[in-house]
Fold:
Amino acid sequence: MGLTKTEIFTEEQNKLALLFKALGHPARVAILQRIILANTCICGDLVGELGLAQATISQHLKELKSVGLIQGKIEGVSVCYCINPDTWKLLENNFGDFINSYKAIPDCC
Amino acid sequence: MGLTKTEIFTEEQNKLALLFKALGHPARVAILQRIILANTCICGDLVGELGLAQATISQHLKELKSVGLIQGKIEGVSVCYCINPDTWKLLENNFGDFINSYKAIPDCC
DNA sequence: CAAATTAAACGTAATATTGCGATAAACTAT
DNA sequence: ATAGTTTATCGCAATATTACGTTTAATTTG
Structure:
């Protein structure tokens, strides 16, 4: 096995899980924080700042890009990455719905 | 390799990533939605409702419990699971800070 | 054009995850 | 006590992830 049974879940559950999965690694959290902090797009500065090899960071960027959380444009020799505002908004809304669907119950467990 | 280098990231980044990772599987999203929807604690009803084997669901519940998202109490033969309000609140706050730290920039990428 | 820089892609090793059948443990009911 | 119910745990196979050295492709600079 080792294969997630996506077919038995709803589209919504799969999409949300994919976004969370992409956020489920400290390096990718760190990368997103860096991009946000820099305000303007940053590129391979990450390699110097995080303690990971270039190939590893490139892989994490690819994953973030594949779920649409970031987007990149070639800027001469280097590549400029930044947040994808649409996906960010979508994440914010979906997560908001998810987290707000729970209302604390006094006497439970 | 195959081992996440947690030591090079901040406590905050690791904690957030762990929570996201726990949410990063459609079965676990579905389980949480079910628990929330039932309003009162539900137990192994999940086995009939999701299309996964009992052992698999038990494993997912364990993972959700290990990061503190849910808690369970033995109720006779069965086990009663419900959301852990403290962790839920923590997730809500941490995610809020994270998502709100980004403000869209007009001309970027 | 040649050398340097940047980032993606390839290949590989180590480890983690997913899923399940089978078994075990704990309680309930007969 | 014995049988049934419920859930956790074990062990295993298949697949995914993490990390990195090396190579490749593209661009810039001398």
Remarks:
- Helices of chain A lie at 11-23, 26-38, 45-49, 54-66, 85-100.
- Chain A has one domain: 10-93.
